Amino acid sequence: MTENPGIASVADLLAHAHAMESEAHERYLDLAEQLELHRNVEVATLFRKLAQIEQLHVRKILDRVGALELPHLSPWEYRWLDDEAPEAASIGEAHYMMTPHHALSLALRAEQRALDFYSSVLEGGGNSSVQELARELAVEEREHVELVKTWLAKYPEPGADWAEDPDPPVYQE
Ligand code: ZN
Fold this sequence. Notes:
Blueprint: H1 10-37, H2 41-65, H3 100-123, H4 128-154
Helix pairs in contact: 1-2, 2-3, 3-4
The structure holds zinc ion.
Residues 24, 54, 57, 87, 111, 114, 141, 144 line the site of zinc ion.
């Protein structure tokens, strides 16, 4: 898990950070939309807030990019530690009756994966400006992790019957 993802320059790290945070932003929006369709307003609102937080993060990264020219990354060039961008919450894990507790657990795993990615760059050694940026990005990501943990503390795990729907949706063939 802590294998060096091989980030060689600040531009390379920024390109990865930008791809990762944009994907996280889009994924949270997708999740919010899905849950709105199912009128799960409470959880949809949480995902919208998370999407906003990621958008701010994307803007901060773009500020750092400034006039730097970023390498173009094709998806197969991403050096994620997992198959998917570390920060993107998995859409397959969403359930239409998802509770805030489930939504936030999903988000916590996503934010933790992003933090692990930056930490692995940091631990990978090498170029000191890459290290410095990885440290800053890791600090910001740790703030996201802490924020999600604080929210999670307000929503204890629901009982085992949370997915029982007294009025299940009817799917059209
Ligand atoms: Zn984040």
